[in-house]
User: Which sequence fits this backbone?
């Protein structure tokens, strides 16, 4: 199975800050990497697919980059509604696997 | 727009079979090249992909659960289901259903949308 490792596990930031979350895959997964946002008590929602494509309706302050084994999710100007946990997930091969999550506190 | 909704018992006894259904609304489960997935999340923990099914009958399961899992699609009811046998307390989790679709010709798929999730507790 492909292991996905996120860092940091938690992150405290202020409104307007630029924050970056990293995700590393245990093997080359090309660009088959997605990012999900999960607010407390809610289901995950797709933010970024294919490593860098923004899902329709997601604010442009979210940006994904990377390929191969190293990926990043950047929020350019943090807003209060961005309080959530963020998970990366590889769709290169089954079993699909997720990172352990990054809890973003504002 | 397509919406998914999980349903099923919230409490299952150890050694019994967990059975959940995901109802699809706003579109036909048979349209397009979609895979229908189950994903779970124990309280306070991360996400685990359980498996997927296609309307063609093709299924793929996580090897960690493969011997206990069955996912099937019922096109007549526009829903798909999960059965997990011989459950233990370790199977207590919020269970999500999700649609996976191809976003490029290279085979990239992504989970969108998700159901709201349903908590299943395994306890006697």
Assistant:
């Amino acid at each position: 199975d492909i292991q996905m490792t996120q860092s940091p596990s938690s992150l405290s930031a202020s409104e307007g800050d630029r924050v970056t979350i990293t995700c590393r895959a245990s093997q080359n997964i090309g660009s088959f990497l997605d990012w999900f946002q999960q607010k407390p008590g809610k289901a995950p929602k797709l933010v970024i697919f294919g490593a860098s494509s923004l899902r329709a309706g997601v604010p442009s302050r979210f940006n994904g980059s990377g390929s191969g084994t190293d990926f990043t999710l950047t929020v350019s100007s943090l807003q209060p509604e961005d309080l959530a946990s963020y998970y990366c997930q590889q769709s290169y091969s089954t079993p699909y696997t997720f990172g352990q999550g990054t809890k973003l506190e504002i | 727009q397509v919406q998914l909704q999980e349903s099923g018992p919230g409490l299952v006894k150890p050694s019994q079979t967990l059975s959940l259904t995901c109802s699809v609304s706003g579109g036909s489960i048979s349209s397009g090249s979609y895979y229908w997935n189950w994903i779970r999340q124990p309280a306070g923990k991360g996400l685990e992909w359980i498996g997927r099914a296609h309307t063609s009958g093709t299924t793929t399961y996580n090897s960690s659960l493969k011997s206990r899992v069955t996912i099937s699609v019922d096109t007549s009811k526009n829903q798909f289901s999960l059965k997990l046998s011989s459950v233990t307390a370790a199977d207590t989790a919020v269970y999500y259903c999700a649609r996976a679709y191809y976003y490029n010709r290279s085979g990239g798929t992504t989970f969108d949308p998700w159901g709201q999730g349903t908590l299943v507790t395994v306890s006697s």
